[in-house]
Amino acid sequence: MSRTIIISNRLPVQLKINNGNLSAEPSVGGLATGLKSVHREGNGLWIGWTGLTEEDTPKAMEGEIDQALAELNCAKVVLNAEEIDGFYFGFSNRTVWPLFHYFLEYSEFELDFWEAYKRVNQKFADAILEVATDDDIIWVHDYQLMLVPQMVKEKRPNATIGFFLHIPFPSFEIFRTMPWREEVLDGLLGADLLGFHTYDYERHFLSSVRRLKGLEVSFNEIYLENRVIKVDSFPMGIDYKKFHNAAKDSATLSGKDRTDLQIKLDEHKKAAPNTKLIISIDRLDYSKGIAARIKAFEYFLIKNPEYKEKVRLIILAVPSRSNVPQYQLLKKEIDELIGRINGELSTVNWTPIWYFYRSLPFENLIDLYTKCDIAWLTPLRDGMNLVAKEFVACRTDQSGVLILSEMAGSAYEMNEALLINPNNFEEQAAALKEAINMPLEEQKNRNKLLQQRLERYNVEFWANEFMTALKDQQNDENVYVSQKVNDTILNEFSNAYKAANKRLLFLDYDGTLAGFHKDPQKASPDEELYELLDQLHNQENTELFLISGRDKETFTKWFLPKKYNMIVEHGVWISRNGEPFKLLEQVKGEWMEKIRPVLESFVDRTPGSFIEEKNYSLAWHYRNTDPDFGEKRATQLNTVLTSLIGNDDISVLNGNKVMEVKSSNVNKGRASVRMYGEADYDFVFAIGDDWTDEFMFQELPDSAITVKVGPKKTHAKYHVEGTKKVREVLKRFI
Ligand code: ADP
Ligand code: G6P
């Protein structure tokens, strides 16, 4: 039976050994807390690091450790102190973490860190390879393991591998500064599906792939030589029920049954009923903007002295990565800031900031989420931020206000929160004021909407969406798999060709017989091509058709004197034996007047793009635009056109850097099948490079030899790499 194997640096538990006794604590951090619920439900396995070093683990306790982990369906990867230094504290947290969170100045590019990262990633990959079968689904998590997908794929080409990045993927301008940027991309490209929290991270990644690897990217797919990789955004949710129910349960506790923290918070509320409690919970990390938040709080109190003694900020900072110098400095900075502000602003009855530097048990986390009035979360950059979602889930009476940084991934889904720019103190002070004074009714309205969304898009939903996309991706590939043309296949082609009595050939032009050119008019045939086509055209019992989306005027100029058979504009016009073009299909063209202005507006806004006007279709070319920008515009145009068209008479074809609007009843498939029906052909061959050719590949009979120029994902039976190879194939027919 197939299993899901989760692999991440952190396991859901952290093991500790005290005086020879083994104990386990839940891990903190979004990845572990979120995935825990997903893992609990399934029959899977979770592979990761226990938090112990090899040196700290007595050999005699190995069995006990394995047993404890096995009970949680977990297995360990053992790391020694040196590996943890270079891989975890080094490359992961002194190179990647700061860089991906836009703290370029903190990022250290040390060769030793990189070497350790590679070694340890290989260790994780080996741990997977040891236990996984081809039926299993392998789900690799986060920035510590970016090389693992490729390391596994290399040894197990048939493995199904998903990868999810829990932190931001930075813009190309940032990512390109990393010396090992291509190796990192290669590592990630071993996956079949890559997931990010937001569309922005996804497009940053695709942009780096396009620019650094020069790979073809179409919408959210990356075309490799032998596979297609899908990239998508899946905003991670929380275990909504767990938090909501825990909050409900905690509300029922009374008297002595309450936790110590609850008692303390209740006492505070009783003593100062009009005071608002503001909570902020994060790992102690510079990306969380804790120091700036404290300064913003000071700014708020100085600017609005009437709130002194009326608000209190509770800061819970969970110790994290304390061997990394930046984290030590931050700890010091925060200690000093809080000390100074409390020293300067406290009164006999009031301390503005309560500060906890520790990891609290789950029940206390719930106490804070439920007893405080406002959650104030101001990361300077955060992949998602689950704390924001947990706070809202715990507001069982729908009271409470969330102030959230717009730099957190979760801000995309939490529009009803008060969204702020963490660098803007003025705005933060205004948001605090608004939160303190927000009428209960408004709080409820906002939280109601947020809760509805969080309840639906919970962590289970997130994992299911990812898994379904991963499985689809595999199935999709099976449908579309084509064989690469090699020498044996070439021989088969030419034997079949020679043995045939009546042959029919369909050859696409752009991207197949000739390469692309910035100006389509300049992509005219060269002498070698004319010679090749002449020879094919002159063969006995052979009907050769050039089949193209081009306009008939260009093909008349280039090929009519040669008397080749031609089908142009995707099947609107036909010419045989040097006769002028005739209509092959009756098509309507009234829609063009309505669509032309839309395309013109896109030309105006997209430098380098232009419209090609054909008799019965309009094409928007964007080959000469900035690649990223062009793709973005193409996606927008597709959306606009699909919503405008809304009927079956017109359709949009997404070609290779061209988007064409044309009548639906015309396509190369329909045209080629018509030609096929005219005689008794026993050898049919079609070759082409883009989506418009897929119609031929799909509609021609099964016996046809269909060849895609470019990636493997196609309805054609075979694929070749480029135009040079196309000519090699055709020469075998002469
Ligand atoms: P990050 O992943 O960067 O740490 P998130 O906000 O996404 O940030 O996730 C933090 C997770 O850690 C949350 O699920 C939260 O419940 C948990 N957590 C935060 N503080 C504590 C704490 N003091 N004790 C236990 N768990 C905590
Ligand atoms: C973030 C990362 C996780 C990491 C967590 C805690 O959520 O995305 O991969 O586990 O922080 O950090 P730590 O370094 O303690 O694992």
From TrEMBL:
Pfam annotation, one family: Glyco_transf_20
InterPro entries linked: Glyco_trans_20, HAD-like_sf, HAD-SF_hydro_IIB, HAD_sf, Trehalose_PPase
Family matches, as SUPFAM superfamilies: HAD-like (SSF56784), UDP-Glycosyltransferase/glycogen phosphorylase (SSF53756)
GO biological process per UniProt: trehalose biosynthetic process
Cellular component annotations (GO), alphabetically ordered: cytosol
Molecular function, one GO term: trehalose-phosphatase activity
Matches recorded under Gene3D superfamilies: Glycogen Phosphorylase B, HAD superfamily/HAD-like, Trehalose-6-phosphate phosphatase related protein, domain 2
Coiled coil: none
PANTHER family: BCDNA.GH08860 (PTHR10788:SF106), TREHALOSE-6-PHOSPHATE SYNTHASE (PTHR10788)
Record-linked NCBIfam families: HAD-SF-IIB (TIGR01484), PRK14501.1 (NF011071), T6PP (TIGR00685)
Entry similarity comment: In the C-terminal section; belongs to the trehalose phosphatase family.
Name of the protein described by the UniProt record: Bifunctional alpha,alpha-trehalose-phosphate synthase (UDP-forming)/trehalose-phosphatase
